[in-house]
Amino acid sequence: MKVLYQDEHLIAVNKPSGWLVHRSWLDRHETKFVMQTVRDQIGQHVFTVHRLDRPTSGVLLMALSSEVARTLSQQFELHQVQKTYHAVVRGYVLEGGTVDYALTEELDKLADKHANPDKGPKTAVSHYQPLATVEMPVAIGRYGTSRYSLVELKPETGRKHQLRRHMVHLRHPIIGDTAHGDLRQNRGMAEHFGCSRLMLHASHLQLIHPVNGQPLHISAPWEADWQGVMSQFGWHDVLPELEFPQANGQDS
């Protein structure tokens, strides 16, 4: 597991797409878990303070003690941590903006079987900014070409699948989103560009260090399959700091 930052209180890793953060009885046959892998790698227990969906890659921060975990969890709950994601979406996103669109909680049939299904929608706010667009000479659907955008996303709140659902609300679903997205586009991306993953990556995490009080900025480079799409779309120089891992893998 690629370590992005580590000191005596914290560790941040670059979570690969397809990995669960921790063991779950809902995925009894899964064998790859970030928490257990990092624990074995560094030889000590780790504590989660936030999560990334299984198909999402990028910065995952963990505490090395329960006390630090509580402090970090409070920062996340109070929205004092700035999270920056990047995504490849369907169509041209030509202007930035803010999505202020409340979301009803998504319940799992098994894990949430005792939860109240009649809860009202909760406030959800996301900021988005286009970085690049491309039109590829590949027919997917009813058009002779396919259009994509690279966007920067900054969630202000932390609802389940918030960024994925907000981009669908804008009619620009994230490529590879099998739960909310465009299945035809997902298949087209896999067939023509060799990428079948969710194109959502947690690129940056900015926070105040819970012990020394200093600003901390952690970045996660893209994985090989993501970089392959960037190269095919001619976007390899849009965010070069994410294309090429730092030599020491650490940014403080």
From TrEMBL:
Keyword entries, A-Z: Isomerase, tRNA processing
GO molecular function: tRNA pseudouridine(65) synthase activity
Assigned EC number: 5.4.99.26
Residues passing through the membrane, by range: none
A Pfam family: PseudoU_synth_2
Record-linked Gene3D superfamilies: Pseudouridine synthase
Reported function: Responsible for synthesis of pseudouridine from uracil-65 in transfer RNAs.
PANTHER family xref list: MITOCHONDRIAL RNA PSEUDOURIDINE SYNTHASE (PTHR21600), TRNA PSEUDOURIDINE SYNTHASE C (PTHR21600:SF56)
Protein name: tRNA pseudouridine synthase C
Organism: Serratia silvae
Taxonomic lineage of the native organism: Bacteria, Pseudomonadati, Pseudomonadota, Gammaproteobacteria, Enterobacterales
